[in-house]
Specification:
It contains 2 helices and 8 strands, in the order αββββαββββ. By secondary structure, the chain is mostly beta strands. The strands form 2 sheets. Strands 6-5-4-7-8 form a 5-stranded antiparallel β-sheet. Strands 2-1-3 form a 3-stranded antiparallel β-sheet. The structure holds zinc ion. Zinc ion (ZN) binds next to loops.
Length: 141
């Protein structure tokens, strides 16, 4: 145990996902039977139950679906990170994922203030903090 609640504990199936994330790639799963992508990764397609599901590198582009500013979370390291923005984003490939919206600068810190500037549908891009995918505002243009 790391004493932290924000880092993954990969198993035999999810190790591929976390290894890619550590290299800066976001993986999704796509079904060869119905063609739909899903996230989080499952061994069966959640849409049609086919086992013909393979890994695919996502574009890393997403739009903001919904979010909430978290002011209190006593679990480490969230306690020191609050306030932060917990969100659901919709990946360009279709699936929605739970994540955190971070500030645009480096290092990838919490988005300051009350989620300032966020709006539904905002264009986002994936970034990786300690091998965990988070999202930030996509550069304009
Ligand atoms: Zn399917």
């Amino acid at each position: 145990m790391t004493g932290r609640f924000d880092l993954p504990e990969p198993d035999a199936f999810t190790r591929t996902y976390w290894d890619a994330a550590a290299e800066g790639r976001l993986l999704i799963r796509r079904c060869g039977a119905c063609g739909r992508a899903h996230h989080y990764p499952r061994e069966f397609c959640p849409h049609c139950w086919s086992e013909d599901v393979t890994w695919e590198t996502a574009s890393g582009r997403a739009t903001l679906y919904t979010w909430s500013v978290v002011h209190r979370n006593d679990l480490p390291p969230f306690k020191d990170r609050a306030p932060y923005v917990a969100a659901v984003v919709e990946l360009a490939e279709g699936p929605r994922m739970m994540t955190e919206i971070v500030g645009a600068g480096e290092p990838l810190g919490p988005l300051a203030g009350e989620g300032a500037g966020l709006s539904a549908g905002a264009e986002l891009e994936v970034a990786f903090r300690e091998g965990v995918p988070v999202f930030r505002a996509a550069p304009r243009g």
